[in-house]
Design goal:
Blueprint: H1 2-20, H2 28-45, H3 57-71, H4 75-90, H5 96-105, H6 118-125, H7 131-136, H8 140-153, H9 156-165, H10 171-202, H11 205-220, H12 226-246, H13 251-263, H14 267-277, H15 284-298, H16 301-313, H17 322-333, H18 336-340, H19 346-353
Helix pairs in contact: 1-2, 2-3, 3-4, 8-9, 8-10, 9-10, 10-11, 11-12, 12-13, 13-14, 13-15, 14-15, 15-16
C-alpha cells in the first residue's frame, strides 16, 4: 500500500509538471492524462488481496483511493492520504470481539455467588446423607451428583472435598472432580478478567472494590497454591486501597481493607486501621472485634484479654454484620477465662499465658 501511494504521488506529480510547463511540451495533454490515469491505476496494479481472503479494508481501500484519485486530480490523492494517516494515528482496532467484550463486561451483574458456609448449604440442599458419606460410599450416581453439587457450591470446603475426590478409586469420580475444579478455575478467570477490564476502563471506587472482592474470593476459595493465594490477597489489598483513594469517606472499604490485611498476615496495618475507626460509633463494634481477631491470630492472649474487658465494660454496640454481632454477644456472655478453659484448649492457652 505504501508503494502504491509513492507511485501515485510520482505520477500525479509528473502530470502536474506537464501541466505547468505545457508551453514547452506541445503534447502535454496526452502525457498528463496518461500520468493521471497511472496515478489512479497504481493502487490496483501494486496491491492485491490475499488468495481466498474475505473482502476487507485491504480490498476496498485501494479501490476507493483509485476512484478518488481519478475523479479529483491531486485533491483526491491528498485527501485519501490524510484520511489513512488520521485513521492510523487517531483510531484503534475495534472489531466484533472487542465490541462484545465491551458490552459483556460493562453490565451491572458482577458478583460471584459463593456460599461462605458449606454446612448451611448442605443442610438445605442434601436431605439424604452428608456429602462426605456419599463420597466415601460406592453409589456412583450419588457420588457423581455430590461432585456436581460441590462444583455449584464452590466454597473452600467444597474445593477441599473435590481435591480429596481426585484420589478416589473410581476413575469416573476422579474425572468429574477434575472437571469441576477446572470449571471453577475458569469461572474465577472470567470473573477476574471482567473485573480487571472494568477497573481499567472506569477507574472508579466501585470497580476497584469489585476487583478486590474477586481477588479475595479467589484467594479464599482453596483453588490457588500458597504462592498464588498470597499474591491474590496482596492484589486484593492494593485494589481496596485504590478504591479508598478514590472514595476517601467510604468506611466500609476501610473495614474490608483491614480484613484483607488480616488474611494476608499484614496485622500491623490492619491494627492501625481498626484503631483509627474506634472513635466512629457506627463502626466501633467492627473495629473492636477486628482488634480482638488480630490479637487472637497473633497469639497475643494478654492483649486479647484486656481488649475483651474494655469491650465488656462499654455500652451495648450494634452492627449490620451478623457474624460480628454473633461474636460480640459471645464475648458479652462469656469471660475470657471461661473460653480458655474449653476442653482441649487449656494447655495451649495456659502455655500462651506463661
Amino acid at each position: 500500500m505504501l508503494g502504491a501511494f509513492a507511485a501515485s504521488y510520482l505520477f500525479e506529480g509528473g502530470a502536474l509538471w506537464l501541466y505547468l510547463y505545457r508551453d514547452v511540451v506541445h503534447w502535454y495533454i496526452f502525457a498528463a492524462l496518461a500520468a493521471h490515469l497511472l496515478a489512479g491505476l497504481s493502487f490496483l496494479l501494486l496491491t492485491a488481496p490475499k488468495p481466498r481472503a474475505l473482502p476487507g479494508m485491504a480490498f476496498y481501500y485501494p479501490r476507493i483511493a483509485a476512484l478518488l484519485t481519478l475523479c479529483m486530480p491531486l485533491l483526491g490523492l491528498f485527501g485519501i492520504s490524510m484520511t489513512l494517516f488520521a485513521a492510523r494515528v487517531l483510531m484503534h482496532r475495534y472489531g466484533l470481539a472487542q465490541e462484545y467484550r465491551e458490552k459483556a463486561y460493562s453490565g451491572r451483574e458482577f458478583e460471584i455467588d459463593l456460599p461462605s458456609d458449606i454446612t448451611e448449604f448442605l443442610y438445605e440442599e442434601v436431605d439424604i446423607h452428608p456429602i462426605t458419606d456419599i463420597l466415601d460410599g460406592d453409589d456412583m450416581e450419588k457420588k457423581r451428583g455430590a461432585v456436581n453439587l460441590l462444583r455449584r457450591i464452590g466454597s473452600a470446603e467444597a474445593v477441599g472435598l473435590l481435591r480429596k475426590s481426585l484420589s478416589d478409586t473410581n476413575a469416573e469420580v476422579r474425572f468429574y472432580a477434575h472437571t469441576a475444579l477446572t470449571r471453577l478455575e475458569e469461572d474465577y478467570a472470567r470473573a477476574t478478567d471482567k473485573a480487571r477490564f472494568r477497573a481499567e476502563r472506569y477507574d472508579s471506587p466501585k470497580a476497584h472494590a469489585e476487583l478486590a472482592s474477586v481477588y479475595r474470593n479467589y484467594a479464599r476459595s482453596g483453588l490457588p497454591e500458597p504462592g498464588m493465594q498470597e499474591r491474590s490477597m496482596h492484589l486484593a489489598c492494593e485494589h481496596w486501597k485504590a478504591a479508598i483513594a478514590r472514595d476517601e469517606g467510604n468506611k466500609d472499604y476501610l473495614i474490608r481493607l483491614a480484613q484483607a490485611c488480616i488474611e494476608s498476615k499484614n496485622f500491623s496495618e490492619a491494627l492501625g486501621i481498626y484503631r483509627d475507626m474506634i472513635a466512629d460509633p457506627e463502626f466501633e463494634l467492627e473495629a473492636r472485634m477486628g482488634i480482638c481477631q488480630i490479637f487472637f491470630e497473633t497469639g497475643d492472649f494478654r492483649s486479647l484479654f484486656q481488649e475483651v474487658e474494655q469491650l465488656q465494660s462499654r455500652p451495648a454496640l450494634q452492627s449490620v454484620d451478623p457474624f460480628k454481632t454473633l461474636m460480640y454477644h459471645f464475648w458479652m456472655e462469656h469471660t475470657l477465662d471461661d473460653t480458655l478453659r474449653v476442653p482441649g484448649h487449656a494447655d495451649e492457652a495456659g502455655h500462651a499465658f506463661a
